[in-house]
Design goal:
By secondary structure, this protein is mostly helical. Helix content is about 75%, strand content about 0%. It is built from nine helices and no strands. The radius of gyration is 19 Å and the shape is elongated. The termini are far apart. The N terminus is likely disordered.
Length: about 180
């Protein structure tokens, strides 16, 4: 164990785990390697989590709240749907998205992660679609535009050399903006 002073609140554990996921991959999110990386005993882990399965559930819930529900809450401070979409882009641009890629890679091997991403992706697409409906676009078309914009956003994160989040958001919004202009 190292002797550096670390904080061990549940939120600290979850943030630390996301950092470790990016640095070392999902295998490092097993109890012993995680405790060793954090420099604490297993008791510190078990103080907050009953077992690894509960830890993973809480980690994914934490990610959902932090990177989906919190973003939506912040975007909803704007009054018009266009302003909400612009605010959402600003919020996304202010965050490092590498963790998202690692979660998605992990989901290829772990069904429980894929199930959580299904909830996350559905919530995000529904939010986009509702913004488009609020702009006056018919619901089915709004849902299709949301799928197009969201899948484009996710897919562009896979391009090498890596694109900046600003570029990804700018290019992704081009298609949605064109559909909106044509429909309104």
């Amino acid at each position: 164990m190292n002797n550096k002073k670390t904080s061990n609140s549940k939120e600290d554990w979850l943030n630390f785990a996301l950092t470790i996921l990016v640095k070392k991959g999902p295998d490092a999110l097993k109890i012993i390697p995680l405790c060793e990386a954090k420099g604490v005993s297993k008791g510190s882990f078990y103080h907050h989590f009953k077992n690894r399965a509960e830890f993973i559930e809480q980690l994914m819930d934490f990610w959902f709240n932090k990177m989906t529900l919190d973003f939506i809450e912040q975007a909803n401070t704007e009054s018009s749907p266009i302003e909400r979409l612009q605010k959402l882009d600003t919020i996304i641009a202010g965050h490092h998205l590498l963790t998202e890629l690692h979660l998605r890679a992990w989901a290829l091997k772990e069904v429980s992660i894929a199930k959580h991403l299904g909830v996350i992706d559905t919530q995000r697409q529904e939010y986009l679609a509702q913004c488009y409906v609020d702009l006056g676009i018919e619901k089915a078309m709004a849902e299709d535009i949301a799928i197009m914009a969201y899948s484009s956003f996710l897919g562009m994160q896979q391009i090498y050399p890596k694109l900046s989040v600003e570029t990804i958001l700018r290019v992704t919004s081009l298609g949605a903006k064109k559909f909106i202009e044509d429909l309104l």
